[in-house]
Amino acid sequence: MNKKLILSIGTLLLSGGAWASQTDSGSFQIDMDGDVDTIQVRADSNPNLRRTNFFTGLNYNEAVFERAPKRSNVRLVYLDGSTRINEHWRIRHVLSEAWLTEGKNQERTDGRVNFTIAPRYEHWVSPKVSWFAEPVYIRGVEASNGLATQELKLKPGVQLTFGQHFISTTGDYQFKWRERYNREDNDNWQAYSADVNYVYRYSPQFNFGISGTYSGTVDNSDYEFRRKNYNVKPFVRLRHYYDITTEVNTTFGREESGQHWVGYDYASISINNNKRITRNLRFVANAQYKEGKRNGPPAGVTDWSGGDKEELQFRVGFNITL
């Protein structure tokens, strides 16, 4: 698969708008594993409803470089979901552990433990308008390297629903710290990101839309930490045979960092599947292929990167609702 094929698929996904219907219904939402930042249907305050939803499983990523050894990452996700307390409050919680294999001898590092907790307040102004505010705390620890990272995000968002049209926008401001045990040269920096998402809920069996993301650092005078990333992602969602839900999406973007703003132009295609087994259990199987074209530094400056790269990523597990 190459970038031209990914582009063709992306164009096809965008053309889904030609199939739009004018039937007015806000109940055609198709949910997928990973929908954490948007609540498209107003929460019911009934205390008997299921309140906790989380994913547990395995993520695998492998990257092959033009002029460097391959790199693979295995992440065991113990818990990735949220618990609703009442109509306005819910708490997101994530706990995972990752192992990285890289280098000429494919050496494997000890596990990195990541923990996230995020209380979120949601408020519906009307059946068509809602907003939320969410502080997010993230901590990662690499015991073998004596390294710990912490991150605090302040994330607001607004959601608009007009019949079958759904629009959401979120932003966040990030405070990041990197600590090295037994050393005094710890680091801290700040970053931000913004997302816009549009969904047309054509029917209970078919949704389509497009999303865009931009992220960057606040202080671009520090070459070590400055970076930016922007992309667009058209997608379709289908509910089809045997109660399987599938999303196909393509992403086109660019990432840059460092003194000369070098990085990658990238394109990816993802096929994500959810299969409902019982009322409380769904099987999740996702796959992604990604290409990165290296944008090197100006002439006369050495490029220390691995050059162009290709990546494969898989996510397999269960989504559990209690």
From TrEMBL:
It comes from the Bacteria. Residues 1-20 form the signal peptide. The keyword Signal applies. Keywords: Signal. This is Porin. It comes from Photobacterium gaetbulicola Gung47.
